[in-house]
Every structure is written in structure tokens, then in C-alpha cells.
């Protein structure tokens, strides 16, 4: 692929290419740098030559040899053995060569315009590797880089990713401060910093300072909750730690705290408070009711958490009380925002005994589901009664076979089977 | 049940070549540093490396000791250190930090081999730290690892995150190069189809590379190629897997086609590593089966085995001799495999029954169908409120959001407000969908449209596209018939379509698209579908290949999932390959399964 003479003429006449002159003082230096680059780049070129893959070999040896450079320089290159003089490629060609891993020199792209041209070509070539490369050259003045990046989303994202990856927190923060606040995701990037703050008081103060960031309305509620929660956790932690060390409160002796409550999620905090501070009046920070109020927790959220905590403590009267509601005539009945099947599951996971479980299994509406649960948790009475209600003699007979000989259950089944009042369906 | 191989199957290309190329290049690179040397290997490269070159091969080429890169100070007495790493800045930095040689005046030779390629940013780090002359660098272009007869993987775990989350296009060229490699070894391809932004870019990168090089005329071994971005279909990887291989992956984590079965499976006190591929005859027959069939199959197999063993009875000496020399070894191996997979099944059953699996599946199916949404939401909320597995909660939440546009703020209460960052990530990806009702969006769309001018165009439309990430799952599902009618009984033993991989409840969107495009030989007639998927579709007739050629290779189709695919999808495509004489699939993939999707996204904003 030889360029014809017209091309060379073009070259001499166009100002696009910087002519090489020996009288330019700077050039001594830049040549030195170029040589260094070229030398550094010789290695991969040699490797490519020896590469076993035919395709690769062809791709590079078919390159033009300095055809665009002035004659004198061409000879010079030939003398010192450069097959690729690396400096005179257009931005587009440079990007192409970079993609192919070939030697290039970015030094000739001195003007901002050239550098940006390079960047834009890299972006349009969709090669992330090449996109980050020219950014390096712009590094000298971060401000300039930042300014140009605000209009170049793809390059900006590459840059942010690069800074995150290289853990250059300082430059990242500088960049974030520079970007317009309307940049999507920016407040969250700033909020993210709290994860790196170990001291709880400093973290709280940082979260407080985040409150003024322009989050979406929804997010800003969450961040405020985060701050309020941590503030509260710090108070609870201090008080409870003190109480635990003092050894005066029985609950902390009986159930020593496994971990600090700091930085725990809201539900975990509620669980903790239901566990250690269940009976406190609504006025205290650690009162479960107060937490429910402050963070506007739903009935279900509160219910499940309190249920699990009180069951864990085997405080069955508390568990019972959670379900009790009175209707207008003053009768009590068991009500739950959660299906009773789920209630049984929660209680079971908190190792409730069969006597407790059966009360709740009995409240499952669906007969079939009730039987399955009752069988699983060995609530024999419920199974037997349900079969009786379903008038299912066959099932009852089958179930009797599973009961221990002479057990109360067996006797009960026998009585039922002998009861002539029941009209069995089978 | 066990599907017999089609008799008219064209032969799959021989991927051994890929391994040999990679191995030879690695050896060449190691020889570049003559003499004894210690080799430091990036942790996640160890398994892939093991498939390419084992320790004895490395030793033959004067590798003395092997170390895993652990970001700790280097203790090595060797005078030559070689690092085989991914082009990750953290690792490059460690190499500097770890070498205190300069300070102590010790002279050593260092070589870094980047795989599959070096990035300019890595050079920049070396330059910045002033060690560019002390350290030489090389590239090991190890792109593709064959994992099975029909699976090749790029084993690049960060691809998904870098590309779809951080918007970093550094792996686009890599994907293009991988395709280029396959093309030069097994091409020319007669047709290339694709959908998704990354697919399109990878396709273009590949084309450029083809033009840079020279294509030799050769007999094609792969006919067509289909490129698909993972974010075209997020619903499928969010569904619980119920096909055997998928379940094994969910529970035991398949890595590089290898799985470690713990003591509960082996019923001994040892864990064993097992290769899971078509070489394992038992596994090969059950891998694509719905879990409910697997037990029956295994017990039948056990009975057959018993019968074969029983043949010994009443044999004379000569018969016995033949039996021992010819059959016994095979039977014993089968016996071993059988007991392993039975153990695995039991363990899967135990784990799944513990966690309300039935109800979980019911919820997923309801969401896919758009039925009993209120019950599903309440199930998910209770799941969250009880602080049960966070990953599961997140997965369900994403599925709810994509299929129904629903959401729940309970999540942050249960698992921490920090997860605002997780949510931001999920939104960025389109796994959590903004609560913009369709109409408001259109109004905004037109407003923003007016604002857009040349200079700010990129920025605004980018910002807007993230806002506009809305899910059209319901419409797509109707258009492509993804949810079979629920009133018909679905016999999982005799699957009638790809829906069997989800118990007959849902045909995976990704696979359905692939099927439709291949059947129509393009996107014609699917205009509405591509619009709903945000476009970026293409279908290009190949270069240098006769697309009319009706040879066997034209039936071999390479599907490349950019960003990973699940084992369920692989099973679905294998099913398609058995059903349709015109398609036989071959897959290049980055593996991932549902929990892994979410794990990579938790609590960090890119």
C-alpha cells in the first residue's frame, strides 16, 4: 500500500501534519521521548512477528512504512531501523492503531482540540481501553478535563470508573464537586462516602451533612431516616452498654448482647428493642412503639418483628397479647395482619413448643393447609378434629395407624370411629 | 425422558484447537523469561489456567513455584518473577507495592503477562510508579475456554458489571476479538444476528478486525451467529431454576464446569470436586431435565445397574472374566456417578424444602403471568419483613418491578438504608424500573426532545435513557406468547416447548427471541418486539461465505450472551436444537446465575 505522489504533495501543503524540522529547539526533547516510546514499543512488535496466529502477522506487516513522512526523515527512520514512525498519524488513525495495540505517540496531540478529537474518536470506536488512554494526557489540568467531560457522558463514565478502580478518592471527589449537581446519581455518589467512615459520631455528622444534597424526594426521606436511626442507635448503644456493664438489669445478664446495634438495619433495631426494651413507654428512644411511630412502620412490619422477638424470649403471654383484639361487645378474638400459616412458621423458627404452635395452627382457615401444618408440627388433636369435621373416616383410619399403640390419640380416634352420631362420608 | 442424540447431527467443531492455541502461546510467553521463575497467578484465573496447562506443563517450562495473587507481600527467593494477571489496576498496583526489592537493592527480573489483553490504564499505573523499565509486559490472548462440547466461556466475571453498570466499554474489543478468533478458526459465518447495544458494538469491533486482517477461504464449521446483550432479558435470570444443572449451579456453584460436592452429598467426611460435562454419562442424561423427572430417572438407572451387577450370578469362569474386564469398570464408574447425583438431589431437596420453595415458585409464576399480583406482593413483603435471605428478597423485588412495575420500600428497613446504593445500581441496569406511568413519560419525552440540541444531546439523552428504562415485559410476553395458557396440563416429562425449563410457566424471552429470528432469518415481523426492547437489533449476511450453502455447518449456530447466561437458558437452547432440524446450538457465554447477578450489585455504586 504505497501512497502516491499526490498524497505526498498534499502532505507538504496541508497544515494538518506538523512538519519535522531540525531547527526547532523543543524537538530534541520530544524526539528523545519519541525514541523512548519507540524503543519501548519494539518488544510487542517483535512478539507479534513471531506470533503463531497467521491473522495477526498479516495485520501488522502490511502496514505502510513511513510513507507519510518527509523523505529525509524516512531515511532516518530506515537507518535506525524503525519500521513504523509513530508520530504522524491522524487522531482517527491513532485511535485505530491503539485499538490494535500498535505503537503510537500521543505527544503530538498538544492542543486541547487535538486531544479532544482523539478522545471523541476513541469514544466513537467504542473501545473503553482506548478511551481512558487520552484522558491520561489531559490529566495535567484536571479542571480542563472535568469541563470537557461534563459534555461527554461516555468518557465521563469511563473516567469515574477508572478513578473508582484505582481508588483515587481525592481526584474523584474533586471531579464530583466540579460536576453540576443535576448530574444523575451524583448525590448518591457523595452519600456513598459514609461507608468509609468508621467512627459512628463522624458518620452521623456526615449523614447530617448529606441531608441538604439534592436527592430525589423519595431518597431524601430514606437518607433522613438513615441519619435519625444512627443518631438513635448511638444513644441506645451508650445506654445499654452502660447497663450491661453495670450488671443491674437482668435481661442483659440472661441474654448478653451478641453485637453492637450500631449501623444495623431498622428492622434489626426494632427487633433488638422488642427484645430488650419491650415494655418501655412510648417516650423513650428505645421503645418499640416509639420506633414504630418515628419511622412510620407498617402494622405488618411491627407485628412480624415483635412476634419473632417475643417468641425468641419464650414470652408466650406477650405473643398471645399481640393477637388479641376486642370487638365492640368486649369479646376477645385472635386477629393477625399475617396469615396464621406464616405465624406458625415464625413461631416454629423461633423454636416454639407444640402446645404453643397448636393454638395457632388451629386458626388456619383452610382445612387442607391446617392438616398439613398440624402433621408437620405434630399437633395430633387438630389433625383428628379436622378429619372428624370433614367426616373423613378413611383418613382417620390411616392416621390411627401412625399413632403409638395405647396413646391418648389412638383412644380418641377409636372413640370417634365408634361414635354412631357421625355420618362419615366414606 | 433421556433424549437420544439426533442421528443426523452435524459434528460440532473441535474446540480442542482453542485450548492448544492458548497453551502454545502461554508456553511461548513463559519461554520469553528463560530460566527458573516463580509464577504468580490471579485467583480467578487458576481454574481456567488449569484447563489449559497443568502444573507439570508449567514445570516443564521452568516455573518453579506457583503462588496465588493475594495482595500480600511477596515472599519468593527466585530471581525471576512472572505475574499472570487480568488487566486490573488493583493487581498492577500490588505488584509495585509488593516489591520492596528496590529499597533493599535486590536485582530481579519481572514480567507481567496480562490476559486476555493489556489496558493502557495498566501501563499508566506502571509508568506512574516508575517501574515501566524494570517490568516487562506481555499479553496472553487467551479469550475462550471450551467448557463442554457445546459451551465456550470467556470467564470474565467483571464483564457484566463493567459494561452494563459502570458503562465502561473496555471489554467490547475483547468480545470482538473472541468472535474474531472463532471466525478465523471456524468461520466464515454466513449470517450474524444480534440485539443490544453491546452486541452491536462488539459486532462492529469484530468487523474492523476482520478488515484489518486477511480472511482465508476455508470450510465453515459454524454457520450463523447470534449476539444478545444480557440486559435484553433480565426476567429469565431472575427466575428460580428448576432444571437439574441450573439447580446444581444455584446450590453448589458450578465454576469452570466443575463443582465441589460437600460431605452432605458424598456421605463421607470429604468433599470432592467433580467435572460436570458430557463426559459424565449420568449427568449428561439428567442435566437438562426438569427436577421432578430426575428422581425417577435416577432410580430407574439404579435398578438397571443392579440388574447388570446381578448378571454375575450363574456365570462360569470364562464369562466372569469377560465381565470383569469389559463391563465391571464401566459399571463401577456409573455406580459412583449415580450415588453422587442421588446425593446431590437429596441435598437440593433438603435445602429447597426449608425455604418455602413451592410458594416462592408460585409467586414467581404469578408475576410472570400477571395474576394474583396482590398475593405476590404480600408474599414478597413478608419475605422482606422477616429479613429472610436478602439476595432472594432482592431477586423477587426486581422480578416484581420488571414484570409489574411494583415496588416496596420495606427493603431498606429490613436490610439497611445503605442499599439505596444497591437500588441505584439496579435502576442503572434496568433491573429496578422507575415508577413512571407510561403517559407522564411520553409528555416528558417530548419536552426533553425539544430541549435536546447538538452539544448537550449526548448528555441529555443519556440521562433520559436511564430514566426511560422501563420494562415492557407484559407487552412482550403477549406478543411472543411467553406464558403458555395455564388451563392446560403441562407434562414435564414430554416437554412441548422451552417453557418446560420453568415448569411450563414461562418461555425464556432470550431464547424465544433467538428462535424467532432464526426462523424468520431476520427481524422482519418483529418490529414491535424490537421497539419494546429498545432496538439495537441487526442482521447481516456474511462476507466471503455462501449463505445458501446447505451444508451441515449452516445448522450450527453460535449464540453469544454478552454478560452471561443461565444454565436454564442453555437447556432451553439444547431443547430447541433437538426439536428443530435447522438449528443446533453452540454457545459462547459468560456464565452467571441469579444469585450471582444480584450479589455483584449489592451496596456499591459503580
UniProtKB/TrEMBL annotation, chain A:
List the GO cellular component terms.
early endosome; late endosome
Q: Which UniProt keywords apply?
A: Cytoplasmic vesicle, Endosome
The record's section on InterPro entries has:
Spe-39
Keyword RNA-binding in record: no
Set out the biological process GO terms recorded for this chain's protein. Answer: intracellular protein transport; vacuolar transport
UniProt key word Nuclease: no
Q: Where is the signal peptide?
A: none
PANTHER family annotated for this entry? DEFECTIVE SPERMATOGENESIS PROTEIN 39, SPERMATOGENESIS-DEFECTIVE PROTEIN 39 HOMOLOG
Output this protein's name. Spermatogenesis-defective protein 39 homolog
- Its source organism is Sander lucioperca
From TrEMBL, chain B:
| Predominant subcellular localization, coarse grouping | membrane
Name the GO cellular-component terms: late endosome membrane; lysosomal membrane
Q: What Gene3D superfamilies does this protein's entry cite?
A: 1.25.40.850, 3.40.50.1910, 3.40.50.2060, Syntaxin Binding Protein 1, Chain A, domain 2 (3.90.830.10)
GO BP annotations of the record are: protein transport; vesicle-mediated transport
Keyword Protein transport assigned to the entry: answer is yes
Intracellular or extracellular location(s)? Late endosome membrane; Lysosome membrane
Ubl conjugation keyword on record:
no
What is the membrane topology here?
Peripheral membrane protein
Which keywords does this Swiss-Prot/TrEMBL entry list? Protein transport, Transport
Q: Which Pfam families match?
A: Sec1
- Give the family this protein belongs to, as stated in its UniProt record: Belongs to the STXBP/unc-18/SEC1 family.
> What protein name applies here?
VPS33B late endosome and lysosome associated
